[in-house]
Amino acid sequence: MSLFSLILLSLALSVDCSTICMVFGMQRAAFRANLRAEEKDPMPPLWWNAVLSGLVFALFHILMILLGWLLGWSIGGIVEKFDHWFAFALLCGIGLKTIIEAYNSKEKELQVHAMFHWKSLLLLGLAVSIDAFAIGVGLEMLNVGLGKLCTCVAITVFACSVAAMFAGFFLQKQLKKLAFKSINLIGGLVLIGIGVRILIEHLQS
User: Rounded to whole angstroms, what are the CA distances from 133 to 5, 62, 72, 79?
Assistant: First the structure.
């Protein structure tokens, strides 16, 4: 596999992470915009959320590639029959939780997008890295070294995730008419949409 093809593969694996992080950034900006002048922002700095999310997503992609590589074709074929359902359930579950909490929470601290909670972030990292498992299983067919693949994917996923969160943050600032609850609704629907797409793609393959 050429370096160009490896980069394209890494970018493809980064799409879901980038989408989620862009929603992160938009939700973060909407939350800050809704604070009153005397209120202090209880959330960590944006750069911390961006770096943490990027690291979690990058780490899970590495782990899933390694797991796929270790399991190989025999056991991997069994896991692949159910991995898309697992990703679908996780993403839809967190998406629904995000939408429900946005409209039911009375405290602003509780209205913060469910994706910012570290438990949800770990589950999201697992859900969006399912495709990396399949890449690990088929590593021999790609004609690329394990170390080179993991390094390129990790760097790309991290960079795209961080960039997307900042992009979402400044994008929302340009869309000031969008309310905080609307952003949470969009975020929840995006997660559900990604889960549905993963399920459809695997069922059609």
Answer: 18, 9, 10, 10
